[in-house]
Structures are given as structure tokens and as C-alpha cells.
Amino acid sequence: MKVIVFHIGAERYGLPLAGVARVVPVAQLLRLTDVPRFFAGLLDLHGELVPVVDLTRLAGLTPEAVRYDTRILIVDCPQPDGGARKLGLKAERVAGVAEAGGIGDDAVRVTDLDTLLPAAARGMLFDYAVAA
């Protein structure tokens, strides 16, 4: 299985490539007040407001400065009504596409959206996006 490899702190993770709609460079985000620290803001993606989660903050770590390989992974997030909405996942370092697995320093921990961000938190992010 092909995954897009990114880092959260020193750990390497892989998100199945089939679940990633787009990878975009970090852009200016619309900031909102009274939101959890891991909510980086809203991305204007061709006129659609997309909530963006900072994966480093979500893990309880302090983010580094934006780097040349910092990206926002756009994924389709399932909704309770059966539809899907776009969600951005800000990853400090995106290493590219690789085969899942690996040994030693090449090991990639394959994850999914449910593991990265619980459904309750995802719903809250979309509530903020609608209110904006």
C-alpha cells in the first residue's frame, strides 16, 4: 500500500495515499478565536473554507517554524449524514510517497483519520467552519 509520509515530532507516519485528495503548500490561514490550540485555522481553497488541524499541536508538541517541506494534506472527512467534507492536516515535514512498512530508520507508522483525529473533534472543527 502506498502512503504519504510525514513527521509528527521525530516519528514518521504514513497516511494511505488513496485517502489524500490533495497536498498543498502552507498558505495563510484565517484565524478564529476561542478554538482549541490544534485548530490552525481555515484555508480558503478555491472559495471553499477548509478547517486545518496542526498535527504537531494535536500531538501535544511545540511546532517548529514553517519549513520548505511543510504541507497541508487535504483529506475527505466522512460526516454523520454519510457525506464528506474537506479537512486539512498541517504536517511540519512531508517526505513524499512510499510503500507502507519499513524497518529501523525507514519504518513508517501507518495511521488513518480516525486515529489522528477522533470524530468528536472533527465535528467541532466543522461547526467552527460553518460559523465563520
Q: Can you give a write-up of this model?
A:
The protein is built from three helices and nine strands; from the N terminus they run E-E-E-E-E-H-E-E-E-E-H-H. It is an alpha+beta fold and 132 residues long. The chain has one domain: Beta Barrel (OB fold (Dihydrolipoamide Acetyltransferase, E2P)), CATH 2.40.50. The strands form two sheets. The protein has a five-stranded mixed β-sheet. Strand 1 (2-8) and strand 2 (11-16) form a beta hairpin. The termini are far apart. The model has no long low-confidence stretch (mean pLDDT 86).
Category by helix and strand content: alpha+beta
Assign an overall shape.
globular
First CA to last CA: what distance?
37 Å
Q: Order of strands in the sheet with the most strands?
A: 3-6-7-5-4
> Total helix count?
3
CATH C-level label: Mainly Beta
Q: How many discrete structural domains?
A: 1
Indicate the low-confidence ranges by residue numbers.
none
Radius of gyration: 14 Å
How many beta-strand elements? 9
CATH homologous superfamily label: CheA-289, Domain 4
Encode the helix/strand succession as letters: EEEEEHEEEEHH
Question: How would you summarize this macromolecular structure in one to three sentences?
Answer:
This protein is of the alpha+beta class.
Keywords, please?
OB fold (Dihydrolipoamide Acetyltransferase, E2P), four-stranded mixed β-sheet, globular, alpha+beta, five-stranded mixed β-sheet
Topology:
Layout: E1 2-8, E2 11-16, E3 20-25, E4 39-45, E5 48-54, H1 55-58, E6 71-78, E7 84-91, E8 93-99, E9 109-110, H2 113-116, H3 119-131
Parallel strand pairs: 2-9, 5-7
Antiparallel strand pairs: 1-2, 1-8, 3-6, 4-5, 6-7
